[in-house]
Amino acid sequence: MKRLFTALLSAILAACVLHAATTDLASQFDCLREHNLAVVAAHRGQPDPSAAENALSSFRASVAAGVPFLEIDVARTKDGVLVLMHDDSLDRTTTGSGAVGADTWADVHGAKLKRLGGAVLDEGVPTLAEALAWGKQAGARFELDVKRTTPFKEVVDAVHAAHMEDGVLVVTYTLPDAVIVHHLDPHLMISVTLDTPEAVEAARKVIDPRRILGWTGTDHPEIRPFAILRAAGIEPIFGTLGRPGERLDDVYLADGNPSEYGELVRAGVVMIASDTAVVAQRAIGDGYRQCFK
Predict the structure, then answer these.
(1) How far apart are CA 73 and CA 65, in angstroms?
(2) What are residue 89's DSSP bridge partners?
(3) What DSSP character marks residue 6?
(4) Could you tell me whether strands 120-124 and 112-114 are parallel, antiparallel, or unpaired per DSSP bridges?
(5) 74, containing H or E segment
(6) Domain map (residue ranges) of the chain
(7) pLDDT, tens digit (0-9, with 9 covering 90-100), for 280-292
(8) Is 113 left (phi over 0), alpha (psi -120 to 50) or beta?
(9) Can you tell me whether residue 24 is helix, strand or coil?
(10) For the chain, what is the largest distance between any 2 Cα atoms, rounded to a whole number of angstroms?
């Protein structure tokens, strides 16, 4: 009986520890790192390259297929509305034309999204507020790639308004920009380029390491500082995305056996940013669910 009680108590304590590890995004990433697990982020929210970029329909398809993170691009219209758009102009991905920053929300709202092959969807450009509201209900998490003309403060304000502080990772490309976001809200998770030991040490001095993920690039994973990042309590991100025919996604899928994604996880990567997100997530499995509520 004593042994049974001890075993039961141990199981309860273990469950409590796991629950505690899933109360905020920083703890969820800690849990992934500590259990040698990883997640995939769907580049531009697409489940695969044939789907529309930054489209709610693509987000739904990605999440339904088990991809927990959606990387989306945040731009700003002339009249200050935050919208999802990768390019500076509307031409490539919508039926509209002209620069996003020179158009009003009414102009952008009138355009329809297009797939890569040119097929027009009965779906318009979403606002950041719409995407965050949908994500909160759907249990999705976002990487917010903030375009250079979009103020970080406005993005952080939108995250606060949507009560999505534990559902977003803000992408930055320089340490000064990461510091700006950290000062706006020290609770938020931030991605910043950390591809050398010196960059890792510099970031640790000005930002709480538990709030950082280190972006390590899109090529030569064998030379990336995954172990150094992990030892510093920082989760490594690696990208298999890029130009068609050149990106590692295409290389990994060429022989029909995407086992290389698993090799990245074994090498220490905690997040994989991919253009073939559904395939990549299936290749590494859904173990992440034990860390994500």
Answers:
(1) 21
(2) 99
(3) H
(4) antiparallel
(5) strand 69-76
(6) 24-83+128-290
(7) 999 999 999 999 9
(8) beta
(9) coil
(10) 74
Q: pLDDT band at residue 170, thresholds of 50, 70 and 90?
A: very high
Nearest alpha-carbon partner for 227 in 240, 218, 238, 219: 238
Question: Residue 154, class by beta-carbon neighbours within 10 Å (0-12 exposed, 13-18 middle, 19+ buried)?
Answer: middle
- Cβ distance 11 to 36 under 8 Å? no
Report which secondary-structure segment, H or E, holds 143: strand 141-146
Q: Are residues 152 and 146 in contact, defined by beta-carbon separation less than 8 angstroms?
A: yes
Tell me: pLDDT of 269 over 90.
yes
> Of 214, 211, 187, nearest to 199 (Cα)?
214
86-118 residues labelled b (16+ CB within 10 A) or e (exposed) = bbbbbeebbebeeebeebebebbbebebbbeee
In this structure, what token pair is assigned to residue 4?
């049974």
- Predicted confidence at residue 65, as pLDDT, reads 97
pTM score, whole prediction? 0.91
Residue 43 to residue 129: CA distance in whole angstroms: 19
Length of the chain: 293
Average confidence (pLDDT) over 61-87: 97
Q: Evaluate whether 240 touches 273 at the Cβ level (below 8 Å).
A: yes
Q: Which tokens sit at 279?
A: 């395939």
24-83+128-290, what's its fold? TIM Barrel (3.20.20)
Type of residue found at 232? A
At position 42, the amino acid (one-letter code) is: A
Mean pLDDT, range 182-204, rounded to an integer:
96
**Other beta carbons within 10 Å of 128:** 26
